[in-house]
Amino acid sequence: GDEEATTNDKATTEEATTLKVASLIPPMTEILELVEPQLEADGIDLEIVVLGDNVQPNTALAADEVDANFFQHKPYMEEFNRNNDANLVPIEEIYFANYGVYAKNAASIEELPEGATIAIANDISNVDRSLALLAQHNVITLGEKTDVYYTEADVIDNPKNFVFKTVDLLMLARMYDDADAVVMTPAYAAPLGLTPKSDALLTEGIDNDFAITLVAREDNQDDAAIQALAEAMTSEEVRQFLEENYDETAIPAF
Amino acid sequence: MPDVLVQYDTEIIQAIGETFIMVGASVVAAIVVGLPLGTLLYMTHPQKPMENKLLYQFCNTLVNIIRSFPFLLLVVFCIPLTRLIVGTAIGTTAAIVPLAIIAIAHYARLVEQSLLDVPKGVVEAAQAMGASRWQIMTKFVFVDARSSLILSLTTSIVSFISYSTIMGVVGGGGIGDFAIRYGYQQFKTDLMMYMILIMIILVQCIQLAGTFLARTLDKR
Amino acid sequence: MPDVLVQYDTEIIQAIGETFIMVGASVVAAIVVGLPLGTLLYMTHPQKPMENKLLYQFCNTLVNIIRSFPFLLLVVFCIPLTRLIVGTAIGTTAAIVPLAIIAIAHYARLVEQSLLDVPKGVVEAAQAMGASRWQIMTKFVFVDARSSLILSLTTSIVSFISYSTIMGVVGGGGIGDFAIRYGYQQFKTDLMMYMILIMIILVQCIQLAGTFLARTLDKR
Amino acid sequence: MIVLENVHKAFGKEVAIHDVSLHIPEGAIYGIMGPSGAGKSTILRMMNLLEKPDSGHVIVGGRQLTTATTLQLNAARKSIGMIFQHFHLVANKTVYDNIAVALSLADVPKKEHATRVAEVLAYVGLEAHAKKYPAMLSGGQKQRVAIARALVTKPRVLLCDEPTSALDSNTTSGILQVLAQIHRDFGMTIVLVSHEVAVIKSMCTHVAILEQGAIYKTLDITPTGITASDNTAESFVRALQEDHV
Amino acid sequence: MIVLENVHKAFGKEVAIHDVSLHIPEGAIYGIMGPSGAGKSTILRMMNLLEKPDSGHVIVGGRQLTTATTLQLNAARKSIGMIFQHFHLVANKTVYDNIAVALSLADVPKKEHATRVAEVLAYVGLEAHAKKYPAMLSGGQKQRVAIARALVTKPRVLLCDEPTSALDSNTTSGILQVLAQIHRDFGMTIVLVSHEVAVIKSMCTHVAILEQGAIYKTLDITPTGITASDNTAESFVRALQEDHV
Ligand SMILES: Nc1ncnc2c1ncn2[C@@H]1O[C@H](COP(=O)(O)OP(=O)(O)OP(=O)(O)O)[C@@H](O)[C@H]1O
Ligand SMILES: Nc1ncnc2c1ncn2[C@@H]1O[C@H](COP(=O)(O)OP(=O)(O)OP(=O)(O)O)[C@@H](O)[C@H]1O
Ligand SMILES: [Mg+2]
Ligand SMILES: [Mg+2]
């Protein structure tokens, strides 16, 4: 959990401001689209900038090209700050993407054969997250964290000799047929008709740091427009939307 | 028209427009900078009218360096330059900068090669008439190589279209990115197929036009 | 050696190996399939030894379709084929299939163009001697176009290296992907720079070798 | 042996050959003359169907080339040698390879190549140039390579398009003597396009004179024979100082 | 006017020109003869520095070409016309454009091009072919375009490498008459490489005979003049039926 939206002194904005928010894929973009009309009523023109890469939304935010972004969890953001002398700050946790393990030919993790292939995302924070998920359920054991992230090198015990294959995030779902098991976010599992609730062998749940968070910069975090956006994104409307459309997949974090 | 196209019609039209802007700008860059750069590569070759080892190696290395970058990283590397030129590093306009740079390097290489196929005699005829280097190129070598230059440009344009599909990274948009975002990431397979169809038609038209023009202009 | 390289030495060596495998396989595919396909494109052109509108349009469209796909989507489309051929759709071996397909289309186009620059007289001399189509190509046209074919292959190989950097999506690995994953996504800028340096050196070597070979073999 | 029946050829609107019929007897040395642009090259190129007539027939050695399949045409062409007006050497092959390739197309075993190439190179006086590439040769040397390439397979028919245009009279008579010798030994049919009256007169038994794509006249003549060649600079001095050329 | 001083040129190990000195007086028609491969083309190509001598000097119109800068060399070349042995036409330019480009390089105003190109095309008898591309021309027609291109700028020096090799004797004498006429009108210096004794004899006042890259002899001769041309097929019949050629 993280700090709640702080109290706001200035309640109104006089003139229409444009708020640029970088994002990647649904449901992130859908949430932003959902709150757009509400912000418009507040005199804020929300412009959604869809990018296609996991680094550029932060780069753009740090460079003042956008005012906020909405695609990442806090650890990922912190890592960016550390490496780029950036001052990004989390504004509001919006939902948990319930990471899970899926397998086509196994109903439980125990059924996976010795030496089975497990596909995981190839970017380092997701490698960390995938391994942590498996460790959380005692499928593997991880050693001391030597770096910021766990890597495959940190696996000290792997009783069933699982083989990890790293592929692009976008490719994970396609590996469902290929690998014995896939560790992925619900957003990628959904198109296969898989939900964390009924299909995942293991899930992350909500007790973690990985809530998808609205992020802004230190210098604009208190801006009325940002706060208005944070407020809109934590509205009942959004909660309802997530619960109706992304049950167990995107669990509201507010 | 299929429902899915109707549903997304404004986005699709916008994506097509973005592709045209990005590819159009690349073509302009290829012609305005890539053609001269490729010509310089040719001219400074050993035994060519402006033989110059140093200049050749400089241009050659420059082109190689640009072509060595994984395209994604080139886009990232260009960000400061892009910001300097167009004031922002995201969006279709911003995507033009890295695309133009790769377009220049790509076409320059093909230009160099096309010109190397021009028979020696053509250059000799020009030199014997006292043609300046500029005249040797414009009045003789380009004329002889014109169909080859056009085919190279055609091949390059098709590559530019392909490169433009990666520009989603910096929000460049375009049909390819649209296909990837909606079709692939969101599993709207039918939408993706239509987008790919549009790209095939576009490429086919460009190739046909290029081949036709090259053939018409080839009197050798 | 810089610390960061020592730290990742096994991974880097593996990545270099993966790049060599992927690019090497693409080169083989380009030569074994792309060269004949490009030759067929040339042969079936109007006024060329095997003039055949239908066959030409078929091959031409095939090449265009492959080149129309956003590369990422081509990789995805190839998955069933890849699985059929190499048994899996992930890993370096699996990455070879889409790379080979694009390599074939890419080189075929450049081969077609190189051959179109061969003077008519060479083909006529071959025909007058009663050469079969195979002999016309192998004993005459390829010989005349050899330096151009080598330069085209060089240009293509550099492109293949560039394409291989995208193969991280299916776990293909390679230097480019290494640079993107460790260098770019994990902000290890120095590591990324070293990887790019390796790629620049690789590209520079290939280009120098290609240019040298082409120049040595060019007796025109 | 070679029969052209009402062959006709137009390039666009321009008619290059108007309904020409020609009969060239087996073993003849047949000259074709005519002003520049008359259609000599076009008609010669029809005899191995490099130029496809718009109408009419071409029959060589009893074979209808105009209706032949590609395979039949290729077979026929293997026994028809050709010397092109513009030589058409392969720039990236050495002199040796330019000649040897004709042998390998004619299915002459590889082990015979060296001796046969050496033989024709001696005929045309280019023994010393076997390893050169065409770009390193003088105009006359290129032409002689083209001649050697056509002769090396000892074809049944030899089509020569201005074979000595780039050669001085001494070299020309040397080449003509070789042609005459080969003709005596093998009795092939030779068609000789030339603008040099002296060449035609010395060699040919029949001449056709072309004008604007049509046959103006055919003549039977008695070849005068070739005067001995003397390939020295002194011969130029002598020729220049003679009263009549 | 044209002075070669101890020029020397080797291609690899092969020496093509051995230390040749030659003095060609202003306004002369200077013939260069010699057997095939003697070095005629090489020496001619040195006169506008297309072939750079390994040592020695080339002086044309008082200008040292061997030490000239690119700019000076280009300026000098503008007054030196050249007819190449292999024509070197630009394949993608029409006959008209191949000739007109020489005018535009010589800075002749564009509005004069049409009349001047028409004039030289009439000289060489190709009025009807202005819009054709080189690939559509016969061998002799190509050669005549090359001649027209060299003549159109009325250069002070004209270097001709076998300018009539592809032409029958009638067309040749037509061309030679044009050359003689232009020479009378403008008094340019003409260097004429030819293997045809008749051509040299009819035109030249001086002749150098080359052998193996060296000058064997230089002669002063009295040109016999050019016999009237008669470009008909009948002239071939007559020539064939004459006793002497
Ligand atoms: N591809 C072509 N397109 C148009 N016209 C052509 C083509 N080829 C030849 N011609 C024309 O056909 C005529 C005959 O040409 P051809 O080459 O047979 O002449 P030729 O008798 O060999 O002349 P030369 O002695 O000059 O070689 C010429 O007027 C030429 O311009
Ligand atoms: N680039 C080259 N490389 C090697 N040798 C060459 C080169 N150019 C010319 N030669 C040689 O130099 C000699 C002279 O050639 P050149 O072309 O001057 O002869 P030429 O007198 O013009 O003969 P022709 O009458 O046959 O045209 C020839 O033996 C030729 O083989
Ligand atoms: Mg001809
Ligand atoms: Mg010569």
UniProtKB/TrEMBL annotation, chains B, C:
Domain ABC transmembrane type-1: 16-210
One Pfam family cited in the UniProt record for this chain: BPD_transp_1
Membrane topology term: Multi-pass membrane protein
Membrane-crossing segments per the record: 20-42, 54-77, 83-105, 149-171, 191-214
GO MF entry, a single one: ATP binding
GO cellular component, one term: plasma membrane
Cellular compartments annotated: Cell membrane
InterPro entries: AA_ABC_Transporter_Permease, MetI-like, MetI-like_sf
GO biological process: D-methionine transmembrane transport
UniProt keyword annotation of ATP-binding present: yes
UniProtKB keywords: ATP-binding, Cell membrane, Membrane, Nucleotide-binding, Transmembrane, Transmembrane helix, Transport
Homology family: Belongs to the binding-protein-dependent transport system permease family. CysTW subfamily.
Record's protein name: Methionine ABC transporter ATP-binding protein
UniProtKB/TrEMBL annotation, chains D, E:
GO biological process: amino acid transport
GO molecular function: ATP binding; ATP hydrolysis activity
Gene3D superfamilies according to UniProt: P-loop containing nucleotide triphosphate hydrolases
GO CC terms of this entry: plasma membrane
InterPro entries on file: AAA+_ATPase, ABC_transporter-like_ATP-bd, ABC_transporter-like_CS, MetN_ABC_transporter-like, P-loop_NTPase
Matches recorded under Pfam families: ABC_tran (PF00005)
Domain ABC transporter: 2-237
Keywords recorded for this protein, A-Z: Amino-acid transport, ATP-binding, Cell membrane, Membrane, Nucleotide-binding, Translocase, Transport
Protein family: Belongs to the ABC transporter superfamily.
Protein name: ABC transporter domain-containing protein
Organism placement in taxonomy: Bacteria, Bacillati, Bacillota, Bacilli, Bacillales
